[in-house]
Write a structure and sequence with these properties.
Layout lengths: L5 H23 L21 H21 L2 H9 L1 H13 L2 H8 L4 E2 H8 L3 H12 L5 E4 L2 E3 L13 H6 L11 H16 L2 H6 L13 H6 L5 H5 L5 H16 L5 H4 L11 E5 L7 H7 L4 E6 L1 H14 L1 H5 L3 E5 L13 E5 L7 H14 L5 E6 L39 H13 L6 H9 L3 E7 L9 E7 L1
Parallel strand pairs: 4-5, 4-7, 5-6, 7-8
Antiparallel strand pairs: 1-3, 2-3, 8-10, 9-10
Helix pairs in contact: 1-2, 4-7, 4-9, 6-7, 9-13
The structure holds S-adenosylmethionine.
The site of S-adenosylmethionine (SAM) has 17 residues, from loops.
Length: about 475
């Protein structure tokens, strides 16, 4: 037990970690990015060194912890209660292209009257929204009513010129890195569904249901369709396409080599078949196909998604389709799996879309189609508790399953610094009435469907968002 007060312990963690971070950056020739420079994957290069990434996580977790101690509790409470104010103001700025307008204005920023003259918004309202966001370092007020981007707001940029967006607003996310598309998806159907969570939980018809059609999304969209049936409607084509591009944004949030190193792809023999089950438009298979031409990749998804996939591959990697290296296959994973010779069934963020009952159905279909050597490779967020887990069987002995814990007095899971997995967990409740799972839950699900988890691989810099889980037939 330390004799120091909690704020002194936190300060000590911050001081030690800042020293480590600075030394590591000097050694690697990297640097801590400027809050006022735009985001780009290279701006986050310093995190590639696990020592620097860990130091940055500790500093952020300690700063947030300190803030929780020292900020008046009513202010902290209202930071949470007012979460929807943040969503509201960001949505208005995202959809009215404020970030792009500020990028084109350059570093001196732009008066809110001039922003409004370009995006047609009321400058009196827009200025208030921007100031609210500037309090959280999303945009910066350089002078009264003159705003510019920060590294955080720059993530909302499609990086397209105004002319291109205005000429075809429905296609504004096409061929982008997907970050704006992902945020736009969360601020539309996810945000709207969240307003109906309590109504869903208070209704005896839906409170205990595990049915995907009982998600809050159905209540707000006035439908009993699942998310995927809803997206497949012709009038929802924009949302479906935006979701597909948004999944590319999930990748852009992670180091560029994440998918390439998440599995030992090189060890697979030439012509091995990798089936990307529920692969969306194939944005994860795209870098795999480029980097590992010895693999045969089959991207499977629902028919309307495969149509979008064809459009994407015909621009991004047409030769892979022509040569047969990549096949785009319409397939419903609740029906028997047509690929009977797969080396790998790869499911990224599929199990989290379905409650146990439904997951078990498609995991059994895959088990029936597996050869004795097929590997089931899942990429999912494995959820840690917010406290230390003292039990001796917390990981069922699975190598790599135990997450790294933060030093005391920080929350064992690094708290909100590691929030992405927890965000995904609540999103799953809202859209599909499903969830992210703990390792024991995943292990149980797989055992019950004929699979055995052999290993969990984690990126050292990230404790909750998207780990690799490998399983083999029992
Ligand atoms: C969360 S997305 C993941 C996409 C992709 N694996 C990725 O990580 O980019 C879930 C995908 O499952 C697909 N899906 C939903 N139900 C399906 C079904 N019954 N059969 C095949 N794919 C399905 C959706 O269309 C969507 O593309």
């Amino acid at each position: 037990m330390s004799s120091l007060s909690p704020i002194r312990q936190l300060l000590a963690l911050i001081t030690q970690s800042v020293e480590t971070l600075e030394k590591t950056c000097v050694k690697n020739g990297t640097g801590v990015p400027d809050l006022y420079e735009p985001f780009s994957p290279p701006s986050e290069a310093f995190r590639a060194d696990p020592v620097a990434a860990e130091a940055a996580n500790i500093i952020s977790a300690a700063a947030l912890h300190m803030e929780a101690i020292l900020t008046p509790p009513q202010v902290s409470l209202y930071r949470m209660v007012g979460g929807h104010f943040k969503s509201t103001t960001i949505r208005a700025c995202l959809e009215s292209n404020v970030t792009k307008i500020l990028r084109e204005a350059g570093p001196q920023g732009l008066h809110v009257e001039d922003i409004a003259s370009q995006n047609g918004q009321d400058p009196k309202k827009l200025g208030r929204f921007l100031r609210y966001l500037a309090n959280h370092h999303v945009y910066r007020e350089l002078q009264p009513n003159v705003f510019t981007n920060t590294r955080i707001s720059s993530m909302l940029d499609t990086l397209k010129p105004s002319k291109v967006i205005l000429a075809n607003p429905e296609r504004k996310h096409d061929n982008t890195m997907g970050l704006a598309a992902l945020a736009s998806h969360h601020l539309d159907e996810v945000f709207k569904a969240s307003a109906y969570s309590w109504e869903t939980l208070a209704d005896s018809q839906t409170v205990l249901s595990e049915d995907p059609s009982a998600a809050p999304l159905g209540r707000v969209m006035k439908t009993t369709d699942t998310l995927w049936q809803f997206y497949a409607r012709p009038e929802e084509n924009f949302r479906q396409r935006r979701f597909g591009i948004g999944m590319k944004g999930v990748q852009a949030m992670q180091p560029a080599d994440t998918i390439l190193t998440a599995f030992d792809w090189k060890s697979l023999a030439p012509e091995s078949v990798v089936v990307d089950v529920g692969g969306g438009i194939g944005s994860v298979s795209l870098p795999l196909a480029a980097q590992f031409p010895h693999l045969k990749i089959v991207v499977q998804d629902l028919p309307s998604v495969i149509e979008d996939a064809k459009a994407m591959w015909s621009t991004e990697m047409p030769d892979a389709i022509k040569s047969g290296q990549v096949k785009l296959e319409a397939h419903d994973f609740f029906t028997p799996q047509p690929q009977a010779n797969a080396s790998v069934f790869f499911l990224k963020q599929i199990c989290h879309d379905w409650s146990d009952q439904y997951c078990m159905e498609f995991l059994k279909q895959l088990r029936s189609a597996a050869t004795p050597k097929t590997v089931l490779f899942l990429m999912e967020s494995i959820m840690p508790f917010a406290c230390h887990d003292p039990s001796s069987d917390s990981d069922n002995g699975i190598p790599g399953a135990t997450p790294k814990e933060a030093p005391a007095p920080l929350l064992a899971n690094y708290g909100a610094v590691n929030e992405m997995g927890y965000n995904a967990d609540i999103t799953m409740f809202l859209l599909t009435n499903s969830q992210e799972r703990t390792i024991l839950h995943i292990d149980e699900l797989l055992r019950n469907t004929g699979w055995k988890v052999t290993v969990v691989r984690r990126r050292p810099e990230d404790n909750t968002f998207l780990q690799s889980i490998e399983a083999v037939p029992i």
